TrEMBL record:
Keywords: Cell outer membrane, Membrane, Signal. It comes from the Bacteria. The keyword Transferase does not apply. Residues 560-573 have a biased composition (Basic and acidic residues). It holds the Pfam family OstA_2. Residues 43-198 form the Organic solvent tolerance-like N-terminal domain. This is Organic solvent tolerance protein OstA. Residues 560-580 are annotated as: Disordered. One of its GO terms (cellular component) is transporter complex. Residues 1-17 form the signal peptide.
Length: 580
């Protein structure tokens, strides 16, 4: 019975062939007017497999025959079913209406309200509630263009694509390559996932590898915390492992911080990210940024690390602080007294340098509690402030978090403070105070006072005002030693205001104190490594030429010469013995 029905359909198709009217096609299916009619082999013709009725109505479909009721047609291994089909046999063209379904040999299925299909070019158009499904995803749109030879499907009227990984893509225009399972999105694209949202203007997604490539401004936003997101203008994203590889104008936003670099990587599951090239880690809340050649971030630990000539800038209202070292680490930790409060910390390791307009320093490592304003300098620290220098085993600097100035220093172990007697000359004259421990107090951004505890000693140049000239006149040098010393730093002098517990103090005129006693044996005034401007922190040492100071020992030399001369005279008066 089935064979008889097929023969009737075939004979009917031939009998109606002479009355054909050129079909009105979708522009996508139009053939060029200059194209020569193509000779179609019988095996390449669209074939009717089944239909309940064959109808020809001059008033309908330009008089072309059509089939109704469970219509099935076949072409090149694909099966099209519909409620109604118009067959333009001479053009090898089909129009299908009502519950249309195209089952392709590759396993993909297209359903729609209506379809057009050209058997010669193997191109088709599906309209009205179009759905394309295959093992990888489901595409929904209003109009879908497909090319069986190129194995492509395309839409530009807006649509959604849902894949087997739980991703739903929304886009105005997309091309789907069925062989490679690649989707090329053009225009504003949104990929929705349970964990993240991707939005961009040009994205290619490979369904086989579950990878997305970005070719324009694109953002990947964390659903749980929308402030944590990734931005790039060129990159690749592994949608399964949540790994982003970013190559152009990229930024990683995490925990209110921003990481940028030439080439970047970020894993949204582990929270680990890294960047190379011109790397910057910006922390707007802390008003601090770190720059370097390589950086890493750890989102879950809220920490970061920068290497390759890194430096950090802590911006302040009136004066910024600059840090540099071989490695800089920043992190946040909950306050031990209130876990709701987070404190920020900065660590600079190996050859650490710090610059502030009124204080510059060096140490092997520097630790800065940004929240409380406490800075620790470890291993051979040295801190300069104006023409004053402080050294010790460890230095702690305390910043006033309100006015951002240094309030005080604590020097622990081998504390030593040196100040130039007169910064306007190059005389080898330095006031010095040292001991086991020292507390240094600042006033108006300058060292004003020091309190030294434990084996405290001082060398102080003493001046007095000449009553006639009203100019300072050098009296001599005072050497003091006691358990505790209180010293007051003035513009050109160091005044010992207290010396207690086993105190000894002697003042020597300049003619009576030799140059070797004017400095402590461990005197360490350093002008070669001193940081004079913030750019000096960018190198291990600016290596300035050592300042050469002239020794003022004229009075001592004269006195010594007079003593030597007197000794010589006394020696000359002695009778000389001669050997017989």
């Amino acid at each position: 019975m089935r064979i008889i029905l097929f023969l009737l359909l075939f004979i009917s198709t031939l009998s109606f062939a002479q009355d054909k009217t050129p079909v009105k096609r979708d522009p996508y299916l139009q053939t060029p007017s200059t194209a020569q009619p193509k000779q179609v082999k019988p095996e390449d013709k669209v074939k009717i497999i089944h239909a309940d009725k064959i109808i020809k109505d001059p008033a309908k479909y330009e008089g072309n025959q059509y089939f109704t009721g469970n219509v099935q047609i076949e072409h090149q291994g694909s099966i099209l079913t519909a409620d109604e089909v118009v067959l333009y046999s001479e053009e090898n063209f089909v129009k299908a209406m009502g519950n249309t379904k195209l089952q392709n040999a590759d396993g993909s299925v297209i359903t729609a309200g209506e379809m057009e299909y050209d058997g010669n070019t193997q191109k088709g158009v599906a309209r009205k509630n179009v759905v394309l499904t295959d093992p990888k995803q489901t595409i929904k749109t209003d109009i879908l263009y497909y090319d069986r030879l190129a194995n492509q499907a395309y839409f530009n009227t807006g649509g959604t694509i849902a894949d087997s990984q739980g991703n739903v893509m929304y886009t105005k225009s997309a091309t789907y390559f069925l062989n490679t399972k690649m989707i090329d999105f053009v225009g504003n694209v949104k990929i929705d996932n349970a964990q993240y949202i991707i939005e961009g203007v040009n994205i290619k997604q490979n369904q086989n590898t579950n990878t997305a490539e970005f070719f324009g401004p694109t953002t990947i936003t964390n659903r749980a915390n929308p402030k944590n997101r990734v931005y790039t203008e060129r990159g690749t994203y592994k949608m399964g492992s949540k790994e982003a590889f970013l190559n152009k104008n990229s930024k990683i936003f995490y925990n209110d911080k921003i990481l940028t670099g030439d080439d970047m990587y970020f894993n949204q599951i582990t929270g680990f990210g890294k960047a190379t090239g011109n790397v910057t880690l910006d922390d707007p809340k802390e008003r601090r940024y770190i720059k370097g050649g390589y950086g890493e971030i750890f989102e879950k630990k809220d920490s970061a690390m920068m290497t390759k000539n890194p430096y950090a800038v802590k911006a302040m209202e009136k004066d910024s602080v600059y840090f540099a070292a071989e490695k800089i680490i920043s992190y946040q930790r909950p306050d031990s007294l209130d876990i709701k409060i987070k404190k920020s910390f900065l660590r600079a390791y190996k050859k650490a340098r710090v610059y502030k307009s009124n204080a510059q320093g060096r140490a092997d490592s520097i630790a800065f509690n940004e929240t409380d304003g406490i800075m620790h300098m470890y291993t051979k620290p040295i801190l300069w402030s104006g023409e004053k220098q402080v050294t010790g085993d460890k230095i702690e600097a305390y910043f006033n978090t309100k006015n951002e100035n240094i309030d005080s220093l604590r020097v622990i172990g081998n504390a030593f403070a040196i100040s130039k007697v007169d910064s306007l000359n190059l005389k080898d004259e330095f006031n010095q105070v040292k001991g086991k421990f020292m507390t240094v107090y600042y006033e108006k951004n300058d060292i004003k006072e020091a309190r030294v505890v434990g084996n405290a000693q001082s060398i102080v140049y003493v001046d007095d005002t000449d009553q006639e000239t009203k100019k300072p006149e050098r009296i001599g040098i005072t050497l003091s030693a006691c358990g505790i010393i209180g010293a007051l730093f003035e513009e050109r002098a160091l005044q010992i205001i207290s010396c207690s517990i086993g105190a000894t103090s002697d003042t020597y005129p300049m003619s009576k104190i030799e140059p070797g006693r004017r400095k402590f044996p461990d005197f360490n005034w350093n002008t070669r490594d001193r940081i004079k401007k913030w750019q000096d922190i960018l190198v291990d040492s600016p290596e300035y030429e050592e300042t050469k100071y002239t020794s003022d020992s004229e009075l001592f030399d004269k006195a010594q010469k007079a003593i030597d001369d007197e000794k010589a005279k006394e020696e000359a008066k002695k009778p000389k013995r001669t050997r017989k």
